[in-house]
Specification:
By secondary structure, this protein is of the alpha+beta class. The chain has 3 helices and 10 strands. The strands form 2 sheets. Strands 4-5-7-6-8-2-1-10 form an 8-stranded antiparallel β-sheet. Strands 3-9 form a two-stranded antiparallel sheet.
Length: 188
């Protein structure tokens, strides 16, 4: 009986992994964000935003996103993260007040606007007032936000793990933020 249960469990795991892998058509342009709540898989869009995709891939390869908090999470809107400068600060510390104000030591990336609408699961580049000020921060949409269309760069779309996105701790900043424990390409 236990062998049968083990075999069924192994088959279920294989089918589940195959289903996720079947959605990944380009492993070198698929980002995986691991959290304590599960994994989020994002299809990168280099044909739409090549400079933004290259930046995300560079920071992921450096491990710059590992340990960074989701610092601005607004229910019904979006979850923002990617402050590689201040995003590892401990919640409740004086340094945590700076989370969301930083970027990487790389130059800002110019806007790469497209006609892709901001729908649930779309990933966009966060920026300041200047359209050409995106750097390391990004956000994942919980719901449509068409008022962002043509104003922010779209560089990816969640293809698996929206339940994980929905489970990210809410707040601005959250009292106990969800963190990206490891961010890497699917192929790595």
């Amino acid at each position: 009986m236990s062998r049968l249960l083990f075999a069924c469990a192994a088959l279920f795991m294989a089918l589940t992994q195959t289903a996720v892998a079947a959605d990944v058509t380009d492993p070198d342009n698929t980002l995986v964000i691991e959290t304590d709540k599960g994994a989020i898989t994002i299809q990168l869009l280099p044909q739409i935003a090549p400079q933004h995709v290259e930046r995300v891939k560079t920071l992921a390869a450096q491990g710059a996103y590992d340990g960074v908090a989701f610092h601005r999470v607004i229910p019904g809107f979006m979850a923002q993260t990617g402050d590689v400068e201040h995003g590892r600060a401990e919640a409740g510390s004086s340094a945590f007040r700076r989370v969301g104000t930083g970027s990487s030591d790389l130059p800002d990336v110019p806007a790469e606007f497209s006609s892709i609408p901001f729908e649930r699961g779309i990933v966009g580049a966060a920026r300041s007032q200047s359209p050409n000020s995106a750097n390391s921060q990004f956000f994942i949409m919980f719901a449509p936000g068409h008022f962002l269309n043509g104003q922010y760069t779209v560089w990816g779309q969640v293809i698996d793990g929206m339940d994980v996105v929905d489970a990210i701790q809410k707040g601005e900043p959250p009292a106990n933020p969800t963190r990206m424990t490891r961010v890497h390409l699917f192929s790595k």
